[in-house]
Amino acid sequence: GELIKNLNIKIDYYFSSFQLRANNTLKIIQTTLDDSQQFTRAWELNERHYGILTGLNKVEMSKKIGEEKVHQFRRSWDLKPEPLDKKSPFHPLNINTYKEIPNENIPDTESLKDTYERVIKFFKLKIENKIKENENILISAHGNSIRALCKYLFKLDENQISKLEIPTANPLLIDIDKELKINNCKYLDEIRAKDLLVF
User: Fold this and answer.
1) Largest CA distance in the chain
2) Concatenated DSSP letters for 71-98?
3) DSSP line for the chain
């Protein structure tokens, strides 16, 4: 929040996922910016759905399916874990927050490619025109949904996106013109910045 505040940029629209950690992050940022405007919550900006691995941390995943398989799932473009049982309490079908979302839109598992397709469909529908109208947008989301956006905006290929690291809680400022051409971009905390592959 302080990193963004120091830029003295007016944010015109805020977007977040349905997931609490992204919502809470955004609320902290807005409090720091002294901005109480409503933000748009979109399930399409959620973190990737890891199927049967949902609810497990990296150590637990490794014990369940092996470290090599975890790495493959985390870094592959179109490989996805086995589906999560629809009766699982972790399944969005059984979480009250998702009751307004049509069941056919809620996945049981996802690859990075699946995540990309839903994120970019939403971006084109709800955000792209705002950028073309020179509005300032702030998105609070997750590692894989942000990676999906970066793939689209930076025109990365499937190999590049698998190498892209997204640092936690380090805002990425992207200067985009009306044709969606990137003029400049940088992480606001340079000490914790990651390689953007394209700049």
Assistant:
1) 49
2) HHHHH-SS--PPPPPTTSTTSGGGSGGG
3) -HHHHTTTPPP-EEEE-SSHHHHHHHHHHHHHHT-----EE-GGGSPPP-GGGTT--HHHHHHHH-HHHHHHHHH-SS--PPPPPTTSTTSGGGSGGGTTS-GGGS-S---HHHHHHHHHHHIIIIIHHHHHTT--EEEE--HHHHHHHHHHHHT--HHHHHH----TT--EEEEE-TT--EEEEEESSGGG----S--
Q: With 70 as the cut, is the pLDDT of residue 150 above it?
A: yes
Q: Is the dihedral of CA 44, 50, 54, 57 positive or negative?
A: negative
pLDDT value at 163 more than 90 = no
The three-point CA angle 157-45-145 to 5° equals 30
pLDDT of 180 over the 60 cut? yes
- Residue 22 has φ and ψ, to the nearest 5°, of -70, -40
CA distance 85 to 102: 18
Size of the chain in residues: 199
Q: In the prediction, which pLDDT does 22 show?
A: 97
Radius of gyration (C-alpha) of the chain in whole angstroms:
17
Point out which residues pair with 186 in neighbouring strands. 173
Return the structure tokens found at 142: 């997750």
Distance (Å, whole) CA 152 – CA 155: 5
